[in-house]
Structures are given as structure tokens and as C-alpha cells.
Design a protein that fits this description.
The structure holds two protein chains of two kinds. Chain A is mostly beta strands. Chain A is built from no helices and eleven strands. By secondary structure, chain B is mainly beta. Chain B contains no helices and eleven strands. The chains are: A mainly beta, B mainly beta.
Chain lengths: ~120, ~110
Amino acid sequence: DADVTQTPRNRITKTGKRIMLECSQTKGHDRMYWYRQDPGLGLRLIYYSFDVKDINKGEISDGYSVSRQAQAKFSLSLESAIPNQTALYFCATSDGIEVTSTGELFFGEGSRLTVL
Amino acid sequence: KQEVTQIPAALSVPEGENLVLNCSFTDSAIYNLQWFRQDPGKGLTSLLLIQSSQREQTSGRLNASLDKSSGRSTLYIAASQPGDSATYLCAGLSGNTPLVFGKGTRLSVIA
């Protein structure tokens, strides 16, 4: 089983619909992230969370919200989807930068979202 | 604020050639640098992680180096194969902030 699991893997929806992308991890990491990837624009950070009570905006948080339900779960919501949110979305996890940890980042397989 | 640049954006080489992919970063107080591989439409696979105290890491035909003073990392691929064709991304971690990614180098190895 994958260490970082994203659901759904593919979703087609219509403008104005609410969409939730879910991420769960079995690595025991405190830190979780949501990125989107668009051709030519690279990976852009949407939101990140360094522990269950910590939520931070990334560079492109407008139109998105997140929920950290538990250490292992981090969900991304699009309250009212629009076509320019069509993209490949990735969840990632890492441990911290304490002496005993490396900060290595691990990714899920991605969720392809199409908004018509 | 850390910025990461990868040049060139695309590279095409014949099979069997040794090659180097470049990654530059602006904050020399880097905690680690990580190289990833991404196949089209797929997730990112971690290839190598270099801690700030290390100069290089090796895995099979891959060797990654880190030079903090010059703000550079390189990924060396020996004896390239068509199966190495993918996009390679580097990302730097500085302080208590998320990793910053370069835009990647798209590698094509021609048989």
C-alpha cells in the first residue's frame, strides 16, 4: 500500500460544484502539504500544515480551503470550482527538521481534477 | 526567501551518454536538497536527498552533489537509458518553511 494516498485519483466536475480531495498518510509525519501542478508553471504550494493545529496559506490559496482532521489526514476543498482550477493536485508529507529527522518529502500519486 | 532554478528546461541526449542536470538556489543556509523524478501524468518519486552536512549522495547510476557556497546542486546520470526519460525536479528546504521547487528539466534519452 502507498504511504501517501490521495482520493479521488480522477474527477470531472462542473463549474460551481464543491469538491473535496482527500489525503491520508501512514508515514507518521507531522507535516502535510497540498500542491497543484500546471504545464509550464511547475509545482505551486496551496496550503501546508506542520501539525494538527497548524494551517498555513501557500502562494495560491485563493479559492481553496483545507482541513487537518488528524495527523494522518489533510483534505483540500474547492468551495465553488471554476475551470482554471483544472490541474493535477498533489499531497505530500514530511517529517520536520529536528536533529533526528531529514525533512524528506514524499508525494501521493496525484488527483487529476477537470472543471467544465 | 529561497528560489530554485533549473537550467535547461529540456534536454535530449543519445542513449549511453553521461549527463548532468543543474539546480541553483539562492539561500545558502539550506537544510537539504532533494531530487525527484516525474513521469508524465504521474506523481513525484524521490531520487536522492542531500543534507546540508553532506557533499554528495549516490544511488545506482545517479549521483547528486551539493555545493552550498556556490548555491548549486547537480544530478549526474551515468550511461543514460531510454527509461531515464522523465522530468527531473530539485527542491530546497531552508529553515522551517516548505520546500521550494524548481520548474524541472525534461530529459529525453533517444535510443
